[in-house]
Amino acid sequence: SRHRVRACVSDPNGRVLLALGDIDEPVYPRSAVKPFQALALYLTGAVERFGLTEEEVALATASHDGTPRHVEVAARFLGKLGLGPEHLVCGVHPPFSREARAALEAQGLAPTPLHHNCSGKHAGMLAAALALGAPAEGYHLPDHPVQRLNLATLEALSGARPGLATDGCSVPTFALSLARAARAFFLLADPGRAPEAYRTPLLRVREAMRRHPDLVAGPGSVDTLLMERLPV
Questions:
Q1: Average pLDDT over every residue of 209-228
Q2: CA 125/CA 25 separation, integer angstroms
Q3: CB-based burial of residue 126 (10 Å sphere; 0-12 exposed, 13-18 middle, 19+ buried)?
Q4: Distance (Å, rounded) from C-alpha 108 to C-alpha 157?
Q5: Are 111 and 90 in contact (CB under 8 A)?
Q6: How far apart are CA 179 and CA 97, in angstroms?
Q7: What angle separates helix 119-132 from helix 68-80, to the nearest 10 degrees?
């Protein structure tokens, strides 16, 4: 099959090194920006306050497959916050993993919010909210302190004010040009070139993902396979 794509490679200053197609029209990176949303765990001190592990940080960046391991880490994450699945507003869908979905069906069990591919991201937002002293309720709304922090973070790293819409899991999603998104991803790859306040958070999020690629997606998923097999 053939697919027409747009692509952009940028340096940390936003200078475009490679452009394919229109790289200036805003697009919605959606789940691709989860690593930047997970930075709030460090920017707010949530990691230290709740004793979060690299596994839980990695899950906060994930579009995971809903395997038993993903569900276990998500449940443990929420437990550290004194919260449960009922506090997640991401919704419910069957696991992406065929094996996990079949196992639930065989047991006659319904999926829960923990199986949702965004449950880790939402747990991360709840952790950041509590660390900020903000209410857990309404953490998904654009004017909540956590969402304002995420918007400011992405603006600082991309060099542009993102547009906003609502994603399928109820939280704000950002609109950026590929050129601006490429700049942010360069800084995730090379945190030493980022503004000083973001360098350590970027490094720690990146390393959590690299050490736990199975939590970022799942066994057999392309994201995880690439992270496991490509040089680091």
A1: 95
A2: 28
A3: buried
A4: 45
A5: no
A6: 33
A7: 10
- Token pair of 216, please? 């970022």
- State the chain's mean pLDDT as an integer: 96
Angle in degrees, CA 47, 122, 186, rounded to 5: 70
Residue in the structure block whose two tokens are 């995971």:
64
Q: Between vectors from CA 16 to CA 11 and to CA 17, what angle results, nearest 5°?
A: 80
Name the DSSP letter for residue 22: -
For 63-220, where are the E strands, in sequence order?
163-166, 172-177
pLDDT in tens, 73-89: 999 999 999 999 999 99
The DSSP H or E segment spanning 26 is strand 26-27
Query: What residues pair up with 26 in beta bridges, in sequence order?
Result: 177
Edge to edge, what strands does the sheet with 26-27 contain?
A: 26-27, 172-177, 163-166
Nearest Cα to Cα of residue 27 among 178, 183, 152, 179? 178
- What is the CA angle 44-152-58, rounded to 5? 50
Confidence category of residue 232, pLDDT binned at 50, 70, 90: low
**pLDDT grade, residue 13 (50/70/90)?**
confident
94-113: per-residue pLDDT in tens?
A: 999 999 999 999 999 999 99
| DSSP assigned state of 98 | H
Residue 106 amino acid letter: A
